[in-house]
Amino acid sequence: MAPVPLSPIKVGHIDDVQELRKEKPTTIPERFVRNRAERPEPMVLSSSRDIPVINFSKLIKGNKDEQYDEVSKLRTACEDWGFFQVVNHEIDLSLLEGIEKVAKDFFMLPLEEKKKYPMLPGTVQGYGQAFVFSEDQKLDWCNMFALGLEPHSIRIPKLWPKKPAGLSETVEVYSREIRKLCESLLKYIAMTLDLKGDVFEEMFGTAVQAVRMNYYPPCPRPDLVLGLSPHSDGSALTVLQQVKGGSVGLQILKDNTWVPVQPIPNALVINIGDTIEVLTNGRYKSVEHRAVTHREIDRLSIVTFYAPSYEVELGPMPEMVDENNPCKYRRYNHGEYSKHYVTNKLQGKKTLEFAKIQT
């Protein structure tokens, strides 16, 4: 059962940030200007040096000691951060470069061409702004293009672009490799919880996968806007590729401070989604994150969401519930949660209230 969300408000051309940028505005349209409490701080004092880095090659090929060390690091990453970077992930670097190129080429197409693939009412697929439901809602300084990938029943073929050449083929190959990475990481995450490695694979059924490309043009007043509103992800795992040469834009909320995630060359950033928080009864938490913009440098990211089948019933795993850690979340249908997620604006971790047991 694919979720059938409500229809978002259609955004006009004046709200396309690339078109705005071409006009070299001296002021930011009010629709993008954030309230003072939401604006990014001019200086983030925390450093992202401590965000864990997992050597994937040692996880899958290392000797016993190396594997033990990496699993321990992965456990700490999931418990303390909800975010980590993966190096030596064994995805061909030419494929990472290829997806970067076709994504950038897509966003550089004329607006009239991109408008052939509009973000359809009631979905988060296509080109435009997602999660916009009211005329007075603040907009993100970002253009998006998203596609449903797996299972094939969620695909909308008319939204797969004919230009630039090779985009569809590159997305297919890239997505297969990212899917394999997610499947492997979930096995090791299960190990960190002392569970059997295939527990998530068996539970998820045919996992749902989608890709979203985010383009953040330079902004003349980055202190007034957000590239992407604070939110946690509704997925089980999210995989982020930060394109080389762009500005540092990703920030995560750690101990009530926004911490920038400095890109490591050729690494992929992984974060825990709401689904894993529910399944682990809050032991591993999804983490709020956001994107900020830069005055002179643009930024492109490619995000993959990996989640259970819409048919699956979810709730805390029995092994995660005991007298010291009573059940915090109810059982629910994942398709219903997905519907709830995409029919609400991005607002921190508010969507997860859907699953919480109210005390």
TrEMBL record:
Write down what this protein is called.
Fe2OG dioxygenase domain-containing protein
Query: Which one Pfam family would you cite for this protein?
Result: 2OG-FeII_Oxy
Q: Which residues form the Fe2OG dioxygenase domain?
A: 206-308
Q: Which family does it belong to?
A: Belongs to the iron/ascorbate-dependent oxidoreductase family.
Q: Which UniProt keywords apply?
A: Iron, Metal-binding, Oxidoreductase
The record's annotation in InterPro entries points to: DIOX_N (IPR026992), IPNS-like_FE2OG_OXY (IPR044861), IPNS-like_sf (IPR027443), Oxoglu/Fe-dep_dioxygenase_dom (IPR005123), Plant_2OG-oxidoreductases (IPR050295)
Q: Which Gene3D superfamilies does the record associate with it?
A: B-lactam Antibiotic, Isopenicillin N Synthase, Chain (2.60.120.330)
Q: Which organism is it from?
A: Rubroshorea leprosula
GO function terms (MF aspect):
metal ion binding; oxidoreductase activity
